[in-house]
Fold this sequence. Notes:
By secondary structure, the protein is of the alpha/beta class. It is built from 15 helices and 16 strands.
Amino acid sequence: MSQFKFEITARDAGARSGRVETPHGVIETPSFVAVGTQATVKTVSPDEMRELGIQAIIANTYHLYLRPGVDTIRKMGGLHRFMNWDGPLLTDSGGFQIFSLGAGKEHGVGKIASIFPEERDRGGHFKARGKPLVKVEEQGVEFISYVDGSRHRFTPQGVIDIQRKLGADIILALDECTSPLHDYHYTRQACQRTHRWALRALEEFQRKPGKQALFGIVQGGAYRDLREESAQFISSLDFDGFALGGSLGKSKREMGQVLEWAVPLLPESKPRHLLGIGEIEDIFAAVERGIDLVDCVAPTRMARNGTLFAREGQRFRIHIRNARFKDDPRPVEGGCACYTCQNYSRAYLRHLFEAGELLGMRLATIHNLCFLESLMRRIRSAIAEGQFSELRREWLSSPNIPDQGA
Ligand SMILES: [Zn+2]
């Protein structure tokens, strides 16, 4: 039987804090879920993750299915054991990756709007030139492996089965993820197909009840009626929680709107996960509107590019390779408790990045995760103390003016 439980412990206007109980421990919410696409959060070990206070990791069904393969992971004792992470673990449905790898081709563009960031760094991976990588049918979705060009099919039921074998605590139903480049008509079709897939996923999930929890995914792009319809439909089903996926519009203002349309239609008593959001301003905007969980590759990917979170920086970030840090003896962020800031100067970090040393990526990742996790802790205590809007104002007031544009 499911050991999954969610309780809300405090509310502050639209924001809420709470606890998600899983078979592998508790996630205090609101929480940032670290992205471990290939069953690893790049450059840091699970022990380091725990030290940083990271509570949960989301791994990627699509990538792990293609490599090393679900059977390998099952034989190694499941995903927790395989990657040596004994805390709460999520896997996504693979929908996002299938469509992000296909959408660029379909639209004849190399890089699609930012909701498909995976599209950007696939340079070395297999792509069938000129041929569509993805074929969507009622039954499921057929796609070509970027690893070796082989053909595969994901169905809503099949994806439940794959995620059962992986064994994460929270799993997601297969959805069709649309991009901002899809028009209303297509987004509507895809959204309704996602609803039919959700029914099939849930039926398969309930056929063999286990310890896992299943989240349904709300789609609908940046179209109000579609988001509302999707939130209503998906939340009428007996999922353990709800995720919001797909295009959140072309600007931060549109993202706020999408949340304002959809979130009030979701049941109060179940957790809400906003997929693919992890910038500081976006986290505040999401939490303010009642989101409990967010995940995003940005903090760790940024770190590997030498972009570090800092209060002083434009949009909370500094580019450590910038010449002004050449002789800067200060830590990345004064007062940060992380190993990087306790032991190293900006000058040293800059040097590591300039010299192409791997330690630079590690130290930067450690800092970014610590920075974000300590922000989430502050957000949780601010909600408990009824101080969330003060905290928000403290962070988002000038000179860190959030980017309002696309
Ligand atoms: Zn730090």
